[in-house]
Design a protein that fits this description.
Layout: H1 3-9, H2 11-25, H3 28-33, H4 39-57, H5 67-89, H6 92-99, H7 102-112, H8 120-139, H9 146-166, H10 173-188, H11 202-226, H12 232-238, H13 241-245, H14 247-254, H15 260-268
Helix pairs in contact: 2-11, 4-5, 4-10, 4-11, 5-6, 5-9, 5-10, 6-8, 6-9, 7-9, 7-12, 8-15, 10-11
Amino acid sequence: MNKEKIKTGTSTKGRLLMLATALLWGLAGVCVKSISWNSMSIMSARCFIAVIMILITRRSFKLRINKKTALGAVMMCLTGILYMMSIKLTTAATAIVLQYIAPILVYLYTVIFRHEKLRACEAAIVLAVFGGCVLSFADGLDPTKMLGNALGLLSGVTFAAQIIILNDDDTNSEDGVFLSNIIGIFAGLPFMFFDKGLNFEPKTIMWLLILGIFQYGLANICYAKGCQHVDKIEGALILTVEPIFNPIPVWIVTGEKPGPLAMAGFVNK
């Protein structure tokens, strides 16, 4: 049975896995905002815990890596780095909504390069996502937040590349996700030695464990399996649940409220 048939036969499972991924990824904002470490240090620690989680669930320690799988892993790692840097420099709500320019880019790639015909409902959702991105970017025109906004948009570009590549028939999504975490550990590790905010207080450890075990470890397991059962567009659209959920725990725990246009942006989604 080829990959497309597998996807068709278990689409419900894939949708549920992608929905779980979106909700778990949505914990990133509150976790990162609650940890005083710099974004690269957090990235390294998060990936280290996630690797342990993935190793517990993997049946084999052997990696099957080809060029596409390796590229997908790099794109996923870059997405995580850029998004974490963005959260530190702008509001969590703005950062996550801007990242979700990704479904628009996936949509354009599918139409232009794959010549696929998409359903009207998919086009409508993509346009709604675009409207949300515009509103959120407009809300962050404060010069002090422009760098965070730019990084958020750039993370959307790498996120789109991640979705396209890891959903490809020639890519092993589970190995790609695992490799991305290994890359993330070593990419962020050197920054720990220069991190003035580094501490190991109980509160910090608690948020790191939530971040590594649930937000990234369990989420990545769900994402890697979900990629095998849904197509690029459907997967990207299901993941737009994340920007709707992400600002809520941040608001509750830290009191950080999205600006009025950013709020309209994620409601628009």
